């Protein structure tokens, strides 16, 4: 972290007047996932989404319970986080953003996608493929036999030694006068800078960076940083943008397009910062803001 200051099988069942579908099968993560060998425990490595239509055949499903099967063993475990057959990689399934232990629950509806996460267990990650049978069975009122979620045997995790670095840096904006602004949303004192992503090893499928404003994103103010400690000016803040002046997107992973999987390397992302007027009146003084740069790998 750096700181920048500024298929569905169907069988009719006669158990009720309704013709229930038999279990549904979903294979998740059928791709090559490249990750750093060493990650903090609980770090999300990858995500896979299953729509309600895939899970129960409807836009909204009624969740009844879940079974968690560590390492796809066929024997249930408590969960919600379970082991996989790849050393250092765990998995969990989230419904409405929440993980559930094995068992039956009161009816709960969900219309948003189920999320399956691969997580770092805290161990050194070793390259490997997923094995075993299914890892989760999600039971719904619509499909009482459940949706069985496999971690696809076609999926492969490649552990890579090393990560990129993003050096700390300070960007100093030039002085500006209140007369240089023309109203709320106007800017002045633009300063170009480069966001550095250095020493990236080869082998990753994708490297991304995420900008996180210190103090949290301001709703309705894209690219604008909260005032930092010691700021004395009023009615003005710092705005971060790309080199074309488009406001920076916070809290979203952005691909480092120049990254070459075959070679790795260091990269410079051109950006700019400026003052932005936020209220009708401006009181002169000092202005500061900061954001962290987080890197993610696939």
Automatic annotation (TrEMBL):
SUPFAM superfamilies from the UniProt entry: Bacterial adhesins
Domain Fimbrial-type adhesion: 166-298
Keyword Signal among UniProt keywords: yes
One Pfam short name: Fimbrial
InterPro entries registered for this protein in UniProt: Adhesion_dom_fimbrial (IPR000259), Adhesion_dom_fimbrial_sf (IPR036937), Adhesion_dom_sf (IPR008966), Bact_Fimbrial_Adh_Pro (IPR050263)
Domain of life: Bacteria
UniProt KW keywords: Signal
Xref: PANTHER family: FIMBRIAL SUBUNIT ELFA, FIMBRIAL SUBUNIT ELFA-RELATED
Name of this chain's protein: Fimbrial protein
Organism name: Burkholderia theae
């Amino acid at each position: 972290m750096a700181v920048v200051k500024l298929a569905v099988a169907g069988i009719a069942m006669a158990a009720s007047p309704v013709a229930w579908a038999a279990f549904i099968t979903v294979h998740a993560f059928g791709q090559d996932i490249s990750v750093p060998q060493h990650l903090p425990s609980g770090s999300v490595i990858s995500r896979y989404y299953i729509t309600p239509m895939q899970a129960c055949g409807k836009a909204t499903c009624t969740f009844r319970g879940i079974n968690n099967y560590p390492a796809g063993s066929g024997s249930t475990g408590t969960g919600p986080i379970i082991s996989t057959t790849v050393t250092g990689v765990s998995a969990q399934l989230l419904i409405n953003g929440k993980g559930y232990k094995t068992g039956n629950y009161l009816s709960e509806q969900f219309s948003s996608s189920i999320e399956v996460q691969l997580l770092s267990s805290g161990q050194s990650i070793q390259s490997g493929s997923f094995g075993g049978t299914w890892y989760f069975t999600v039971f719904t009122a619509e499909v009482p036999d459940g949706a069985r979620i496999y971690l696809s045997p076609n999926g492969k995790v490649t552990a890579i030694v090393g990560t990129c670095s993003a050096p700390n840096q300070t960007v100093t904006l030039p002085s500006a006068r209140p007369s240089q602004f023309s109203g709320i949303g106007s800017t002045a004192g633009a300063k170009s800078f480069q966001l550095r992503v250095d020493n990236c090893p080869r082998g990753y499928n994708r490297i991304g960076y995420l900008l996180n404003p210190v103090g949290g994103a301001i709703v309705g103010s894209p690219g604008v940083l909260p005032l930092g400690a010691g700021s004395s000016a009023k009615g003005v803040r710092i705005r971060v943008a790309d080199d074309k002046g488009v406001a920076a997107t916070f809290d979203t992973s952005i691909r480092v397009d120049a990254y070459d999987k075959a070679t790795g390397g260091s990269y410079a992302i051109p950006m700019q910062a400026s003052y932005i007027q936020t209220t009708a009146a401006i009181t002169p003084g000092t202005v500061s803001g900061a954001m962290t740069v987080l890197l993610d790998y696939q």
